[in-house]
Amino acid sequence: MPxxxxxxxxxxxxxxxxxxxxxxxxxxxxxASHSFCKSLYAAAKADPDLFFAQPQLYKPQLxxxxxxxxxxxxLTCLLAVRNKFDPSVTIQLMCGSxxxxxxxxxxxxxxxxxxxxxxxxxxxxxGHTDAKFSQLLKTNQQHIWLSSYLLCSHIHLAHxxxxxxxxxxxxxxxxxxxxxxxxxxxxxxxxxxxxxxxKHLSVKCCPKWYALLIPxxxxxxxxxxxxxxxxxxxxxxxxxSLNNTGLITKPLPTKQSVVVQPDKADIxxxxxxQVIHCYPCQQLNSFTRLNQWWGNDLMDWLSSKADxxxxxxxxxxxxxxxxxxxxxxxxxxxxHINADIAVIVKAIEKEPAYAHQLQVSASVSNRQKQPVQNxxxxxxxxxxxxxxxxxxxxxxxxxxxxxxxxxxQALLNFSQFFVFIVSEIAVRTKLVSPELASTTAYFVVSRLxxxxxxxxxxxxxxSTLATFKVASLVKIKEPESLKNGAFLLANAWQQNKQILEVxxxxxxxxxxxxxxxxxxxxxxxxxxxxxxxxxxYFSGTVRCKETASYFKQGLIELGISQVELMNMMTDIxxxxxxxxxxx
Length: 583
What we know:
Blueprint: H1 2-22, H2 27-46, H3 48-52, E1 57-58, H4 64-82, H5 87-102, H6 105-112, H7 119-122, H8 131-139, H9 143-149, H10 168-183, H11 194-204, H12 210-213, E2 228-231, E3 236-243, E4 246-251, E5 268-270, E6 275-278, E7 282-283, H13 289-294, H14 296-304, H15 325-334, H16 341-349, H17 352-365, H18 375-382, H19 384-400, H20 408-429, H21 434-444, H22 452-455, H23 480-492, H24 497-505, H25 517-537, H26 545-558, H27 562-575
Parallel strand pairs: 1-7
Antiparallel strand pairs: 2-3, 2-6, 3-4, 4-5
Helix pairs in contact: 1-2, 1-4, 2-5, 4-5, 4-10, 5-9, 5-10, 10-11, 15-16, 15-19, 17-18, 17-19, 19-21, 20-21, 20-25, 20-27, 23-24, 24-25, 25-26
């Protein structure tokens, strides 16, 4: 039942806050916090309307610090989900939001539950950073959690910390906690509605972070779940859900209509233009009310209106464990000896994303730079092999970059730079197919985007391993997982035998002579390109003896000299406007 599920999480939070007050600040505390936030995230994903409504329903039977900590965690989850943040990033941000209040519970309680007129003579200032806790987070490599927690010195103040909000992660954490403080009832300041909170932050925040607020206008909207609204006919409703045509609401009893039992009132679809006022957070005196609002009646109503699309906060995640069926069908047609262009065109037309990517790629390749609008024309411009490679790379990259994490853009910049080097050297040496080489190159770096340890990093630190190994790109505990993960993904995406062999052998100094010459050449091409990309992207990269030996063998295998390769790189770097972001 909704009431029991929500109540369980409030009780769990209260227990967690007690641990913060009484227990030692150690790794066990971090585990307990992470476990709670992980559970809360899973519950919100399973029943989003119910949980994302809770910040609008204050629980007076619980201490203020429990309410504000719960609201901050839920609102952090909401903003992160709406901005497509990776779950591991989101959970660390939620932990950071809770710890802001958990480590100063007495001061927080006094500050926000004391009348503002007498606060100066009664309370101790809030917003102190706990140095021991900060060091604990740093030692355990909880970098995102730490960056969020350090906002404790800013969120209780009226001014906007423009200098401190340097990344989307920190800006989102600040906004989520400001939403919680602005909308949660307290004696220090009157709460405001969610819509006014959006307006307040829009005025205060830097324009570059407006994009973080925009998704909230669709869900939970300016009249969010759980809010009380007044309609033009004077009736008061509670917002239960959203669909593509309006709000799903339930009437509440008023003094004039005491005869009507609220539990029997009908759930209805309310057009947004009928709303004349949205109230700030209201009290929920009993958790059992949640059963009456988000119980079976709502489920039955939604089932009866299946034709109306419900607005949901979590975007569908495309699966990574297998290649899209539509891509495999198109590739099968493209690779067929007696390929039928009409059939291929029809298959591509069914996938708008593929059609758009094909037209864009063909337009860029067009010497006259004329836009290509026709799929058949695009196929003729690119050829079947290149089309197959472009569509596969598009599918792979779109799935690798579905959710935001701090190093995402930097990794994407490097990966595209690496693939560009691979493709250009393949074109100039004419030893292997550029399409085959670039596709294999994207699989080489694919695990950088999916490994949880990398997704929660805030700063990019390279390894001291030989630079022809993908494991040299980032310092992690299990570097071999980068290479193994790339092979497993390529195998799952049904790549050919040569690509699979190359992914297993490209970082071997002495290539197996029993392999085909073309396979050995592709291995060396990838290893050399990875070294060159590393040296040109990161300043101060020095070749170790192992790399120098590999490089020498690679040049022999490719049949080119050091001077020729360096001249190629000079042209490549001048044509590719790529750079390493300064931190």
